[in-house]
Structures are given as structure tokens and as C-alpha cells.
Amino acid sequence: MKKPLNITNIRALLLLAAFSTGINVLLTPLFSPLLAEDENRAEIVVTGDRREKPVEDTVTRTEVISRQQIEAQGSRNLAEILRSRNGIEIKPAIRGQEVRLQGLSPEYVLILVDGDRVTGRLDGAIDLTRFKAEEIERVEIIKGPSSALYGADALGGVINIITRDPKEPARLSTELQYGSGRALHYGSGNETHASATTGVKGERISTLWTTGWHRSDGYDLDPETNDLKLIRSLVGHIPGLRNEDLPVTEGTTGSSYQDLNVSNRTKVKITDAWDITGRASYHYLNQEKVDYSPPRTILDRSNETHDVMAGLRTDYRFGTYNRLSIAYSHARFLDTLTQDQRASDELDSEEVQDDRVQEARAQLDIAMGSRHMLSVGVEGLWEEYKSPRISEGGYGYRQRASVFAQDEYKPFDDYFYIVPGLRYESDSQFGSQTTPKLSMRWDPSSDVKLRFGVGRGYRAPSFKDLYFAFQNPGVGYQVVGNENLKPEHSVGYNGGIEYEPKKWLWIGLDGYYNSITNLIDFRRTADRKNDLTTYQTVNVSKAYTRGAEFLVEIRPFEKLRFAVGYTLTDTLDRLQDIPLEGRSLHRGIYRISYGGKTGLGISLQGSVNGKQAFYYEKESLATLQGGRLVVDRNVILRAAEQNRDFKLIDLDPDTPDYGYEMKNANHILDLRLSYKFLENYEAFVGVDNMLDHYDAQLDPIRPRFFYFGVRTNYSAPVPTADRRIESISTEEKKPTER
């Protein structure tokens, strides 16, 4: 028997129904002859419920960005694929671009490639520009704590990159692109991108190769650079003008780079029920940057990176829904940082970071009668880390072993699922962790889906958190790790409603709340070591993120699609009683795309971000130093000039108090125009960051950038019989209860 709706659900459904009715009245007379099925409706995904399912039937909501969407918006890498998506923030990182989910930092977001862990975090973040668009078939995203399914580091969610595989008997695709920005301050950011994909698909064996070459000039956002270059050109022509008398500001904000990627995915079909898939990739990256440290220190910095991933997986299917999967993967990230001080060798250095991860997994999915679908699995993970910036001889090692289970339970004949899950994980450094989760889905009607989830997550301290050992004598400080750190824990709640009254209209509303304890942060210690101020990692903070996401998608006819979304992200550092840094309370996104298999194509996408909180350390009128109060009367004047808060008395100067300023509201807009000839050729032009937003300190992104290029695509047609077989196979994977 169905349970009655409560008042809250009734109000929500009435509101959505009223909104939908108004849209229907306005648009149905215009567009009803042109209604089109969304190409993603039959997409088979694996991330949300950790087994193959059509995306529309997942219990845990899984967002999908398809290959067709990636090509239409002209994305070059994963950062560009994600940056105009609801509830996802892409930010500049120490290297490249990083991601935040539900207001949580990148160290709480797990990045996977075909289900395998990615290694090579820098300052806690995986650089999203490492993953090139030509290698990606689709991207699957789940938000909220996912440690019950995926273990450590998945407090904020999971992003799973699914690589391309051949779908036709033969394929050859190429793309060539060139772009340039304005000659702003220093350089123009000239870029060249070239890629090729070729593959074949036989009855038993299929393989696909992808290779790409990408290069870019650096750029600088310092407005003084050009003026100083002009003045320096006059040295020797104007009496008394000397180079040494001029200020030094030379530097680059964005690195120049040369980037090569090669990958292969091969699948061997042993029998109709048993197949083996192998995947391997190699990425080479060389970045160069100029760092300026006042008053006159200039460092030429380069990073040479070798990134290798390989994986092997076998799947055996028996019965209608039963499957046994076994997988092994190995990833290595080798990065060499070289710093060369101009006119001196005092600060010359070379540092090598070598990060390796091996992972083995086995999972069994088996139907237990008509109401239970049980998934159980075991995993082992081995991680090694080498770096001169950590103690313990510059080497760290740990291993994890885990078991997990989840049950898709359908108690009634209606479309109602309860999915409990549990994971037990043992870490060689931090002992055992148990992370439960519970997901539910109920479809009270054919056009309404209700989802709810609650789960625990955790993140073990990284090797840098534990053993960091870095000194900067020129500035007078050092940073050290803490071997007594505890893992960070979270509890998260997610709920949402999806309403799809017509094939051309989709409305989604989601809410979330994440509470995190034992947050790891740096704090200044009371004692000085080696005559340097010392900062150490400690478990000091508690925080929460909470918010809501609203998205409307309209597809009035096959070639045209609109999407508009709004995200509310409210965060709080409970210890300091201030918002988490760099998060926008309000954020909006919009996407407009038009195009088909031939003819004109248009892609317009943008994000509007409200002001974000940026921290500063509060000054004190009177500070306790050496047993006496030291008064600085200028504190009040400086605080008034900068519009900042200050403290009257600071009795504990080794524990800083922070205030925050709200800054950096922005609007990022990208436009791409294309024209397809005979389905095989495409020419395109575009402009990124059309409104030319950037900030050298708060948001050092590339200024306005223009590009153009061509794309070719040749493929042998799929035989009619094979199409019918694939169609039947897809239908078999769809549930039949509805």
C-alpha cells in the first residue's frame, strides 16, 4: 500500500505542477509537433549505484555530461567541461584548475578514470586540465558523501571520467585549433591544440587510440609590466636612467606549457558473457613560469610531469542481472620542480615528487529474488609517496583493505527503492573506519522522482599533512606536519525532487547539508624552531556546508536546448565563526545550445558568481608580548582605511583570529559558433571569458581569449543487424517494473 503524502510533499508537488502548467500553456502550442527525446535518457551509467543502469533509473542521482555535449560546447579539458554546471565550482589552483562540490574543497572530491583512482594531488587538488576532452566519452557526477561505496576522500562526491571506446566498425577523428588573447601586459596566451582519434570495432576485439598535443604561451596580469618594458628600452638613451634604479615586477601569472597525451582502450570479448577491457594512458607536461619575489628576486620555474595510468578489468555475466567484475589499476605521477634564480644560485633547487597508487577490486552483483539486488565487494589499495618536502626520509607508504555491501531493496510493487550500504576499511596508519549510507527513491507518478540520501564520509590525512617539512628562511617561516593527526569525518544529507511533465521540460530541486569534524588546518605554534616562525597541521576546525540547487532544462525541439540554474551555498567555519574562504553564497549558470548533425551550431554558456569571503588576519590594538602589552596606535587607522575589523587586546598572539572581506563577484561567459558540412567536417570559432573578467590576486584566470579550428570525423556505418542487437541489449538493461 502506498503511504500518504505529507503536507510538505503536497505543497512541493502543487508548486511544481502549477509552474509546469504555466510553461505547458505557453509553449505546448508552439513546440508540441517538435518534441524530441533527450539523447541521455537511455545512457548507461555506473557511478551512482556502482553497477550498470540507465541514468534515469539510478537510486542515487547521477549527473551525466555526454560526448555530444562536450563537443557542442567546445571543451578542451575536464575543467572546461564542468565549469558551467550547477553546484560545481572550478577555481584556479596552484597548478591548473581544481573543483569544489557542495562547497567542499578539492581534497574532499574523489576523481576516478573508468572507476580507477587518480593520483598526483598538488596542494590537495587534482589538476583537472590533465584530462583532455578528446579522451572522454562522458563524465558522471554524484554529490554528497560517498565513502560507503568508494572509500576515503569522497566526502564531497565523486567525478568519474569514462574514456572513449569505438562504437563503429572504423573511426578516424581529428581536430586542430589555434587561439590567442589580447597582448595584455605580457604575452598573449597563444595556444595550439591538435588531436587525433582512431579505432576499430570487430566482432570480438575493439580498440581505440587517442593522441593530443597542446601548447600555450604564458600570460601576466600585472598592469605595470608593459610600462616598465617601455621605460627599460630607454635606458642608455636618457642620462641618469639606470636599470638598477627601476623596480622589478617581471613575472607570469599563467604558465606556458607543452602537453602531450596518448591513450588506448581495448576490449576483448571472450564469450558473449565474458569480456576483458584494458586501458593505458601517458601524459607529458612541461610548464614554465617566472616568479617574482620583492625586492629583486626572480626565479625561473619549470615543472616536468610524467603521468601514467593503466588498468585491466574483466566482467562475467550470468543470469539476467548477475555480474562478477575484477579489476586492477596502477597510477604513477612523477613531477620534477626546477627553480633557477637569475644572477645567483642561492635559491636554485630541484625537487622530485613521485606518487604511486595500486588498486585491486572485485565486485559481485547478484539478484536475490525479485525484491533484492545485492552488491558486495573487496578492495585493496597501496600508496607510495616520495618527496624532499616530507620527513621520514622523504618516503611515505600506506595500504588499505576494505569490504563493502549494498542492497537495492524494493519492498512494494510501486517504483520505490531503499538502498542501505556499509563499508569497512582498515588503514595501515589510522586503523579501521566504518562508513554507512542509506539511499531512497520513490516515484509517486511517472513524471515525478523523489530521492533522499544520508551517509558518512571520511578522509585520511595525506602524507604532506603528516610529514610536511618545508622551510622558507627568506620569509622567516617553516611548515611542519603532525603525525598525531586524526582522519576527518563528515555526515551528509541530500534530498531532491525531479519533475518531467513533458519530454522537453525537466525541473530539478536538490538540498544538502554536510557537517565535517576534525578538519585539518595550519596553525602557528607558540615556539620558534631554527629561529623561524612555525606553522603546523592540526585537527582544529569544524565546519558545515549547506545549500540548494535548482535547475530547469527546456528542449522545445531537437536542435535547441536551454538550461538555467541557481545554487545557494552557505558555509561556516565553526571555530572562527566565519564563512569558508572563496565560496559564493549565490551562483547562477545558464546554457543555450543550438545545432544538429549538419548546419549551424551555437553554444552559449555562462556562470554568474556572487561575492566570496577572503580572509585576513586581524590586528590588535594591544598585544601581549614577553609578558607585557605592546600598543600599536596605528591599528585603528589602518583598519579604517582598509575597512577591516580589529581586536582591542590579543592575549594569545600565536593563535590568529581572522576576519573576512566580500569580494570578486564575476560573470564568466563563453561563446562558440560552428558549422558542420556533410556530417564529416566542422569549422568553428569562439571566445572564452567574453566579458574579460580576471583579478591578479583573487581570480588569476586567463583574460578574453579568441580561437578557431576545424574538426573532421570519418566512421564506417554500423550494420543494420548490429544496430538491432544493440537496441535489444539496451532495452534488456531497462527495468520492466514500471
Automatic annotation (TrEMBL):
GO-annotated biological processes:
siderophore transmembrane transport
Recorded hits in CDD domains, A to Z, give: ligand_gated_channel (cd01347)
Q: Does the keyword Nucleotide-binding apply?
A: no
- PROSITE patterns reported for this sequence: TONB_DEPENDENT_REC_3
Coiled coil region boundaries: none
- The source's domain of life comes to Bacteria
Q: How does it sit in the membrane?
A: Multi-pass membrane protein
Q: Which residues form the TonB-dependent receptor plug domain?
A: 55-158
For whether the record's keyword set contains Transmembrane, the answer is yes
Listed GO molecular functions? siderophore uptake transmembrane transporter activity
Keywords associated with the record: Cell outer membrane, Membrane, Receptor, Signal, TonB box, Transmembrane, Transmembrane beta strand, Transport
Where does it live in the cell? Cell outer membrane
Taking every annotated instance into account, which residue ranges of this chain make up the domain TonB-dependent receptor-like beta-barrel?
259-689
What Gene Ontology terms describe where this protein resides (cellular component)?
Answer: cell outer membrane
- Gene3D superfamilies, sorted: TonB-dependent receptor, beta-barrel domain (2.40.170.20), TonB-dependent receptor, plug domain (2.170.130.10)
Q: Give the protein family.
A: Belongs to the TonB-dependent receptor family.
Q: What is this protein called?
A: TonB-dependent receptor
In its UniProt entry, the species of origin is given as Leptonema illini DSM 21528
